Backbone:
């Protein structure tokens, strides 16, 4: 299978799982046993990640996603999804150590997906599912490019990396050397030249714009949104958000959802 074909199948998986998560969230309140099952699977998945047990992780990962699709209770969805999943098995098996170096990040992604479904928030669940699937593809593609195409546009590589890592700690030195394959000074210059912002200011804007989107479209608690976009301190998140949008996160949500 070519890279283009893999990418298209990953896009299809993203659509299917986003659709499934949206519908699963609508059934969450009436399916306590399914939610209990999801959380049990999540614990096993997290344990396997910490032990770097890739086989255990893959089995739990499949079971988790399959359970979400089943919870959606949409005719033919599970059969269609399984065809796409099986077609991407080779992609999923690519080097656990190379493609999944940060077990905490992967665990947090799955936890966020399960909790948005448990909250019964369809829009948040769909966003979590699609973001998760697209991030999986990006990590794999990024790893391949890092060993085969290091000469690519450094700014473009850096920006794409930031978009898929908003919830992670991000440093200019790491992004410059490991992702953009240039010096921190040069990458900083490129950000100012193309976007009129420093690396840190650009990253902060991305985080706050994503937070604004989640405030407009979901019912997620503000603290969860702050964490989702990379803020561990909710108070600091509120200060930065008000500075950019002229309103606190709570006031912004009320105004936008009228």
Residues:
């Amino acid at each position: 299978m070519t890279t283009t074909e893999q990418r298209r199948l990953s896009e299809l998986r993203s659509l299917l799982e986003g659709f499934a998560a949206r519908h699963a969230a609508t059934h969450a309140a009436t399916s306590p046993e399914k939610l209990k099952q999801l959380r049990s699977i999540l614990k096993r998945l997290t344990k396997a990640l910490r032990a770097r047990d890739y086989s255990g992780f893959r089995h739990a990962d499949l079971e988790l996603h399959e359970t979400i699709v089943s919870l959606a209770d949409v005719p033919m969805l599970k059969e269609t999804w399984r065809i796409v999943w099986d077609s991407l098995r080779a992609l999923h098996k690519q080097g656990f150590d190379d493609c999944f170096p940060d077990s905490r990040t992967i665990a947090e992604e799955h936890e966020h997906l399960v909790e948005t479904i448990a909250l019964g928030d369809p829009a948040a669940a769909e966003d979590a599912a699609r973001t998760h699937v697209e991030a999986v593809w990006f990590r794999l593609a990024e790893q391949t490019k890092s060993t085969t195409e290091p000469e690519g546009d450094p700014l473009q590589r850096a920006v794409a990396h930031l978009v898929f890592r908003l919830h992670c700690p991000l440093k200019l030195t790491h992004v410059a050397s490991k992702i953009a394959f240039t010096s921190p000074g040069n990458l900083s210059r490129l950000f100012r030249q193309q976007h009129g912002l420093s690396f840190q200011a650009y990253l902060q804007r991305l985080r706050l714009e994503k937070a604004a989107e989640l405030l407009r479209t979901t019912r997620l608690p503000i603290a969860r949104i702050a964490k989702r976009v990379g803020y561990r301190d909710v108070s600091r998140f509120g200060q930065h958000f008000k500075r950019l949008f002229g309103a606190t996160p709570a006031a912004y949500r009320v105004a936008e959802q009228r």
